[in-house]
Amino acid sequence: MSTVLEEERSLLEELEKIEYAVTKRIKRNASIYKPTTLSKDHNILEDGKKPLAQTLLQQHEIKKLIDKYQTQSSTLLTFLQNDKDEISQLKEENADSFKVFEKLYKETTANHQKTLLLGISKSEEDIYDMFSCNVEKDEANESQPLKKKQRKNRKRLLSAYTADLKLSKIFTEKESFGKFLDLQELYRAWLSLPRTISFDSNKVPTYLNYLDSITQFDDENLNKKTGDYIYYLNGLLSYLKNFWIKIQPLSIPERSITAIESNFESEKEKRIGSTATDGSIYCSICEKSFAKQTVFDSHLTGKKHKKNAQNNTKFEIMKLEYIIKELLNLLSKQLENTKNEAQRFKLLTTREKQLELKNISNISDYEYDYDDQDGTDPTESKNQDSNSDETIYNPLKLPLGPDGKPIPFWLWKLKGLDSEFNCEVCGNLKYKGKLIFSKHFKEPKHELGLKMLGIEDNFDAFKDISKIDDVLKLLEVMKTKKREQLLFNDMATEVEDDEGNVMTEKVYQQLKKQGLL
C-alpha cells in the first residue's frame, strides 16, 4: 500500500478520533464550553453540574487535544500537497488490477501481524478516550480509602494522551481552582524591595494592605531604578498572565494580553510626554521639558530620544506597570475575592485556622469520577451506595457544603447560622444567619411586601425593619414629616401688597384671586 496515502488515511482517522473525543466530553459536561452568542446555544446538552475543578481539568485536556489536532492537520496538509506522484503511480499500476490487489493484500497482512506482535489492543489505540489513562494500580494509589462499591467504577478522568495533566500542577491550593489569586510569594518580594525609608518593624504592611495597594505604582519611597523592582514586576506580570490563561483555556485568553500590549504601543507617545500647568511638555525618557507640542513631536523622531528609549529602563517599567494594571482590571473579581478571603482568614482563631487547613481536600481527588461507559448506571449505583453505605451522619442538621457533606460546626457558628430571624413583611419567612437576613432586605420579595403595605419608593429607609407594625409606624411618621415640610414651605415665603402689608404667598394668591387686592 502507498506509504503516503496510508499516512493520510491514518491522520484523517486520528483527526476523527480527536473530534469525537472532544464531543463526548462536552456532551457529558455542558459547562466545559458555553457559546458566546445565544444563537449558537440550542440547550440540547445535559448539564450534569460537575465540580468546577473537574470542568477546568477537562477544559485544559481539550486545549491539549486541540493543539494536537492543529499539529496533525498541518501534517496532513503537507502530505496532500505532495501526494501527486503516489496517485499517478497507482493509476499506472491499475492496468493489472489482480497484481495490485495481491500486493496490497500482502502489505495489509504484514501490517496486521506486526500489530499483533506489538500487542496493541483496541483500548490502547483509543488514547483520546476518557478514562483511558487508567491501569489496575490506579485504585491502590488513590489518596483516600473508598468503599468497594465506589471503587468499582471510580477512575481517573483523563485520557492516556493527557495522563500527565494534574490539577496540582495547574492550580495551587490557595487559588481554589481560579477563585483566588495566590500572591503570597510576590507579597514577600514586594516587602524586600529597596526603599528610601524602610518599613518600621512594628508597622510592616500586611498581605491585605499589599492587595489594596497592588496597582499603586506611584510610591515615591520605592527605588524603581534597581533591577529588583523590574524583577518583581516581571514576576507579577508572569503570574497574572499564566493565571488569566489557565482559568479560561478555551477562550483564547492570549488575545486579551496581546490587545493590551498593542494598546500600550499605540499610545506610548502620549504616555511618555506629560503636560505641565504652564503648557510645557515633559519627556519622561530624556527627562527634559519642551515649550511647545511641535517641538516635542520633532524631539520624538530624533536620534537622541530613540537611543534613550532603547537603553532607558523607565519605559520598560511604564509598560510593565500598564499591563499589570490592565490584567488586574480583567481579574478584578478574583482580586476582590482574594481580599475578602484574606480578611476572613485573618479573623479566624488559631484553632479555626488549623481545622480549616486540616479539612482541605486533596486537589488530585477531583481528577477521579465514575465511568459510565462500562454498561452500568452510575446514577443508580451512587443512589444505592448513598442509601446503604453512604448515609450521612448529621444529627445537628447542618447545611451541606459544595462537597455534599455537612459544613463544620465551627463554621456554622462563625457565620451565625445557628440564629434564626423572622420577617413579617415577607410573609413570616425565616432566615438563618445574620448575613443572609441582612441581604434579603434588597431582594424583590421584601420590596414587594413593602409595596403591598403602601410604600412606593425610598425602600432604604425601611431597611432592617422586619415587623409590619414598625413599618406602618415609620410610614406614618414619614408622611407627617412630609406634610409638615410642605406646610413649612408654604409659610416660609412672605410677600407684600401695594400698601406694604406683609403676608404669606399662599394668602396673597388667595386674596388676589378674590379680587381683594
Mean pLDDT: 78
The proportion of residues forming helix, as a percent range, comes to: 40-55%
Largest β-sheet summary: 3 strands, antiparallel
Head-to-tail CA distance between termini: 118 Å
Tell me, briefly, the overall form.
extended
Number of helices: 23
Strand content: 5-15%
Strand order of the largest sheet: 2-3-4
How does the SSE layout of this entry go?
Blueprint: H1 3-28, H2 52-81, H3 84-93, H4 97-118, H5 122-125, H6 148-151, E1 154-156, H7 167-170, H8 184-191, H9 207-212, H10 227-246, H11 254-266, H12 268-272, E2 273-275, E3 281-283, E4 288-290, H13 293-300, H14 303-311, H15 313-330, H16 332-347, H17 350-358, E5 368-370, H18 378-388, H19 409-414, E6 420-423, E7 429-432, H20 434-439, H21 444-452, H22 468-492, E8 494-496, E9 502-504, H23 505-513
Antiparallel strand pairs: 1-5, 2-3, 3-4, 6-7, 8-9
Helix pairs in contact: 1-2, 10-15, 11-15
How would you describe this protein?
The protein folds into 3 domains: 3-156, no CATH class; 182-330, no CATH class; 420-483, no CATH class. It contains 23 helices and 9 strands. It has helices at 3-28, 52-81, 84-93, 97-118, 122-125, 148-151, 167-170, 184-191, 207-212, 227-246, 254-266, 268-272, 293-300, 303-311, 313-330, 332-347, 350-358, 378-388, 409-414, 434-439, 444-452, 468-492, 505-513; strands at 154-156, 273-275, 281-283, 288-290, 368-370, 420-423, 429-432, 494-496, 502-504. Helix 1 (3-28) packs antiparallel against helix 2 (52-81), helix 10 (227-246) packs parallel to helix 15 and helix 11 (254-266) packs across helix 15. The radius of gyration is 36 Å and the shape is extended. The model is unreliable at 136-140, 142-151 and 374-390 (pLDDT under 50).
